[in-house]
User: Fold this.
Amino acid sequence: MTTDSATAVEADPAARVRAVRHLYAHRGDRATVWDRAYTVYLTVVLAAVYGVPVVLLVSTTKALVPLESAEAATPVLCLAAAVAVWGAQLTGRFWGPLVLKPFLLHVFMGTDLSPTHYLGTIARRRLTYAGLGTLLAVCTTAFLLTDLFDDPGSTLLPQGVAVAAGIGAVTPVAWLWGQARTVRENVLLALAVAAAALALALLGRSAHLGGNGPWLVTAVLAVAAAALGRSAFRSVRTVDLARLARESARAAEAQTFASTGTLHHALDLYRPQPRGLASALTRPDGRLRGHLAQGAVRALRTRGRALAAAVSLPAGGAVLTLGLAEPDSGRATLYRLAGAVAVYAGSGWVGEAWRGLREELTLAPLYGGRWGGLPARTLAWPVTAVAVTVGAASGVTAAARWPLDDGPAATALLVTASVVLALGARFLREMKTDLPVELLLPVVTPLGDLSALRVFLWQFDGLVVVLAGVLVMNRMPSTPVAALTATGAAVWCVRAGLRRTGRPLRSLLTCPGRA
Assistant:
């Protein structure tokens, strides 16, 4: 090779990017083969313990969402596609496909290369993996929740698979769009997706298409994937590199927390910082406002979380009431689980009160403690907001579904018990500190070391309590027994949460006096 050709190769942007990535991939502190093998081993164990029983259970029960015809399946497919696009956009705003290791991004930013050269190739590879993963996730969800794969000879099966492929194509580019585009453009895309999904759902239920609604949905998804992909990749060259560097640094810190077993600390990094309305926390005379007023103002200072809570809490109350209003069946159980999970999530998004309670219980007081008032100061707003919002949505739903199978008193009692269970699980989750070292001790079984399962349960203990509690409530012989069971589980969650902070149960009633 001549000197001129070697210089040309070195000057080629693609070759320069490959050289940098090759050097970084062969660094000394990279993951070894045994590290990757252990990750695969944990994945196989988790799939065998959790996945196989679910698949066996689903294969022997009736489908939760039956798809009887193409006309009935079109709205479900439109909703699934819209939810996938919205989720990809939201994920891209926090952790998009352009996020790199901070050191690697710093090296590329220090060169004269355009962002298209070192981000475009990475984005294409990650979008390919994301598309395959989305396709697998959609097909798995369809197998678990619907009867799409029950009859291999039906005409609906190839249409459903085609829609799944369309979702797998449009979701990755929506992921890139969510990171590369502005908030305003993402809101416009979300509104356009909602309008298109509604129009296709209404059109698919009409008789004019002759059962070809899913094919129309597939065609629209393919066109949207091509248009969004072309526009999103054009935005790579104009991406805000300073913002991308901050996102990459935060992602690296979150990965460190997650790899050391403190996933809740990693999620805390993505909490939005309160903005504005700081002066509204005090009255004109300088005194603090009431507990409910303070909680409402603090919720409005994180508008994104407040908006998410305003959507999830009423939706959770409505879906939970629908599940209680229907006769016992697989669909009713799914409604109850979904409603309880929505209430559990919304109770954490409604404000920063849970985080303040954890800090007040775990950190030393700067100016000495004072007696009493801890529940009122920290829990008044989230409990009131959840109770009022969920209660109103539940009442409206119950009035629309009147008469109820179990009667209004029994339904109200079960909804209240489910809300209490969700609040107790949220308390357990938010009082979490560092990973207990004893959970890392080996658990020797014929399947190998299952200590990772205990860590997994500790990471998602609040969600596990909600799901297990709702399933246990469904098995109770009477409504009062189910309510008592949920209340007992909530009390256990409160006690376990206080033990994590090192405080006794009386800490909810008193604070330590001044030293």
Q: What stands out?
A: Strands lie at 444-445, 448-449.
